[in-house]
Specification:
The complex is a heterodimer of chains A (about 120) and B (about 110).
Chain A (H helix, E strand, L loop, with lengths): L4 E3 L2 E4 L5 E6 L6 E7 L5 E8 L14 E5 L5 E5 L8 E8 L10 E2 L3 E5 L1
Parallel strand pairs in A: 2-10
Antiparallel strand pairs in A: 1-3, 3-7, 4-5, 4-8, 6-7, 8-9, 8-10
Chain B lengths: L3 E2 L5 E4 L4 E7 L6 E7 L6 E6 L3 E5 L2 E6 L4 E6 L8 E8 L6 E2 L3 E6 L1
Parallel strand pairs in B: 2-11
Antiparallel strand pairs in B: 1-3, 3-8, 4-5, 4-9, 6-7, 7-8, 9-10, 9-11
């Protein structure tokens, strides 16, 4: 079946502009995650959605970052007033279940964000 | 701070050899352990998961888990140049997100 999809694949923006990144999880997966990967660095957790529960926003670096998800479908990550330090690859992952042993997460291809 | 530690490498092995990748974690409550492969410029790809102490084999890959020592490893037998990538260890403590190590870069030389 289809994997996790993300759009756009690349986004170049000017400092101070808002950007919106989209993630479409694997069909039937109840949990969705956003991570960030700066150049040459590891993955940082940003936010987690599980069904209709309140999202876990503990990884969001500032109030300029927000995300939404409707039910168990598409999610959008919004970065307001972008800064150069926001430049990174933003990765979305989904898993069948959000908690418990197992919870294999499958990643999309990512969106490479460059803030000039 | 829940940490996952990996040697950054590069780990260089000749084609056909066994590559051994190691990972330690700090949270004793961790329950699920994963190995991802990430080619340069690509997203992480799940290659192995392990939940119980001992070995788990899948083709050329073997994951090993020792919860008492808080240690996870990945063995790649008959290494191929196409195995050259960064290998990420990830740990889940039954919470919501994965905590990733910084990755080990593997180079398999023909």
């Amino acid at each position: 079946g289809a994997g996790v999809s993300q759009s756009p694949s690349n986004k170049v923006t000017e400092k101070g502009k808002d950007v919106e990144l989209r993630c479409d999880p694997i069909s039937g997966h109840t949990a969705l995650y956003w991570y960030r990967q700066r150049l040459g660095q590891g993955l940082e957790f940003l936010i987690y959605f599980q069904g209709n529960s309140a999202p876990d926003k503990s990884g969001l670096p500032s109030d300029r970052f927000s995300a939404e998800r409707t039910g168990e479908s598409v999610s959008t990550l919004t970065i307001q007033r972008t800064q150069q330090e926001d430049s990174a690859v933003y990765l979305c992952a989904s898993s069948l279940y959000g908690t418990g042993i197992g919870n294999e997460q499958f990643f999309g291809p990512g969106t490479r964000l460059t803030v000039l | 701070q829940k940490e996952v530690e990996q040697n950054s490498g590069p780990l260089s092995v000749p084609e056909g050899a066994i590559a051994s990748l190691n990972c330690t974690y700090s949270d004793r409550g961790s329950q699920s352990f994963f190995w991802y492969r990430q080619y340069s410029g690509k997203s992480p790809e799940l290659i192995m998961s392990i939940y119980s102490n001992g070995d788990k084999e899948d083709g050329r890959f073997t994951a090993q888990l020792n919860k008492a020592s808080q240690y996870v490893s990945l063995l790649i037998r008959d290494s191929q140049p196409s195995d050259s990538a960064t290998y990420l260890c990830a740990v889940n403590n039954a919470g919501n997100m994965l905590t990733f190590g910084g990755g080990t870069r593997l180079m398999v030389k023909p």
